[in-house]
């Protein structure tokens, strides 16, 4: 039973990342009395330390890179191309601020009651914020995640950066050492190399972006190394220490020196959910061994009337999966539409330049599953649009079920890959034969126009 002193609502939303505010507004439109709790910045990771700010920084880095390559395109620039990091950060902040303010403004317009502070469960349907006690029949947890710190010897003795603290950098590191060779680390690595830093990427595994196929990993590494980024793989026995103004990273690689010396250290070794200080035990809400809130196919927790959305549920670490979480919860709760997490097709991008767009299964996953499949691959150097733009690294790859003719997965590493992949993704959601696209007439000159040709070259895998 709710505490008699608690303020009662129809719904409480904890956290204002991608899923929470949208659901709060929808519930308010349905006439529900809604409380929204935010302990820090409205908008969550995407708005404040993720997608929006990092892609804004990537755009500045691309501009610097293009300016340095101007002569290749017959364009003359007088003098040295410089980067004003204070101006780069100011531009990023200017882009972020309206989004953050917009989230808060939209909730106030929706007549949601906003509480600023840290939320903790005191019972299954009761939450404390400061000295206030709130209760609701429905509670939605949308608390996101944060950078995970690796168990590296000496880490407590040296300064380091994470994806969050990188947002406050307004200077150019002389030599940025990035520990972690996956999506976050690689985007920052290329970005700062293009700003003008020396950059070394250290990865404990045998290749970068290990969840991808080996040819994709190699293609990504080739793109980065071509721009002068040093990549150290198979790095074991990591340690860090100060050496004057430098940070020394000790490692045991199969090749190369046993130390990397840099001016600044970025840790990009994964994320962890913000679930350890929510009082979940008091509510009886279950978590897995990594701290993620366990949910069913409709994102409901083991406690009736409580849902978990976004990064904290372990069902996807992307803004688009969090938004889809909102759609799934709203559809089931308000529309009698039984949408499920397992209905969605894995899709994401690595926003280096040129980018990687991914949808569905990898080639390795298909092979492990023993499916009878067809595969086709086309180098970007054979695509006119890529040649015209002077960006010929990468390739397109697609895999099709030999019996059903349905597309199983695709990877597009190259110009426009993050956009072109949606052409394939939509066909996959339609559960349509690849032959529909194979016979389509696409616009010339584009990257997408080669998809029908690519599908026409399918061979047994």
Describe this structure in words.
The strands form 5 sheets. Strands 1, 2, 3, 4, 5, 6 and 16 form a 7-stranded mixed β-sheet that branches. The protein has a 6-stranded antiparallel β-sheet with strand order 17-18-21-20-19-22, with helices on both faces. Strands 10-9-8-14 form a 4-stranded parallel β-sheet. It has 3 domains: 7-146 and 272-343, FAD/NAD(P)-binding domain (3-Layer(bba) Sandwich); 155-269, FAD/NAD(P)-binding domain (3-Layer(bba) Sandwich); 347-460, 2-Layer Sandwich (Enolase-like, domain 1), CATH 3.30.390. The protein contains 13 helices and 22 strands. β11 (236-243) and β12 form a beta hairpin. It has helices spanning 19-29, 44-48, 51-68, 85-109, 183-195, 214-226, 280-283, 319-334, 363-369, 384-388, 417-429, 434-438, 450-456; strands at residues 7-14, 34-38, 113-116, 119-123, 126-129, 132-141, 145-147, 175-179, 198-202, 230-232, 236-243, 246-252, 259-262, 264-267, 271-273, 306-308, 347-350, 356-360, 373-379, 395-401, 407-413, 459-460. The chain is 31% helix and 25% strand. It is α/β, with parallel strands linked by helices.
